[in-house]
Amino acid sequence: MADAGTSGEARAEGGDVGGPLLDVRAVGVTVGGVRAVEHATLSLREGAFASLIGPNGAGKTSLLHAISGFYRPSAGEIHFGGRRIDGWPPHRVAASGLVRTFQRGRVFARLSCLDNMRLGARDHPGEQFVANLARPRARRRREAEVTSEARELLAAVGLGPKADDLAGTLSGGQRKLLEFARALMCRPKLVLLDEPMAGVNPTTGRQVMERIAQLHAAHSLTVFFVEHQLDVVMAMSDHVVVMAEGRVIKSGPPEEVRSDQAVHDAYLGSRRRREAVGRRGDEALAARAPGRDEAGLR
After folding, report:
1. Average pLDDT of each block of 10 consecutive residues along the chain (298 residues)?
2. Which of 40, 46, 117, 293 has CB 3.0 to 4.6 Å from 8, enough for a Cys bridge?
3. Is 173 in contact with 204 (CB distance < 8 Å)?
4. C-alpha–C-alpha distance, residues 151 and 149, integer Å
5. DSSP assigned state of 168
């Protein structure tokens, strides 16, 4: 089994003491009749800062969808904190302590950053209408707690001065940080990040990752992120999982993954296929060019 180690204690109720926090067992995912993930197996210990890499089309995002409840696996099992969660809807997975972000920052553009944060809180007063009427003091106290926690997290990701600004005015990198900070409002055990550096320039992307790493340490989180910037992956991860053609082909420390021949072959093979497609395209254009010239002369 691909394993990020099993030290640490599963905190979820009913969890296996000493077992992995996340345990993915021979999972398959079929999307539109296509087998996107096949027999994927991996596990993550609590407290890991792990990454998921692989060529385009390897099945990385599909696997994250399955873990977080957005796809129902066609085979295998997913266990989180000792409980089997495959087949659970996303809101139930999130309530169990496993949350995620997306490639494109999903924020409420017409709400302030502070209000975006408040929406992510557990036991939000707005969800308890009857209790609010019966216990107005408790409601006000909880609202104050949520607001204080939201401001602290915004400050931690460098968005403190933006608290009252509309989220729609933020840059791409700032939206990524807002989405990550909002995910922390529900006090998760595990956060899945789908390409946190996508859509921002490399300098900003590294700053985003540094902020995430700081909060990972400060909040005793487990983080599992998909990323294509291999220099960042190797420098920041304590564990790397590699997928190719829907399967997990390697899992281990960065230095071990970096030197693995199967990983090199997966990336090199993908590059060669792209180059071959490009060559065939160039050849097709070259073959058609004389016809266009002749037609122009006629």
Report:
1. 44 52 97 94 96 94 96 97 96 94 85 94 65 68 90 94 96 92 93 90 89 91 94 94 95 93 80 50 48 38
2. 46
3. yes
4. 5
5. G
First vs last C-alpha separation in the chain: 66
- What percent of the chain is helix, strand and coil (3-state, nearest 5)? 45, 20, 35
The ranges assigned to domains in the chain are 1-106+188-259, 108-169
Domain 1-106+188-259 coded CATH 3.40.50.300: yes
Contact 65, 37 (CB under 8 A): no
- Report CA dihedral (228, 20, 256, 264) to the nearest 10 degrees: -40
**pLDDT at site 199:** 82
d(Cα 35, Cα 62) in Å, to the nearest integer? Answer: 10
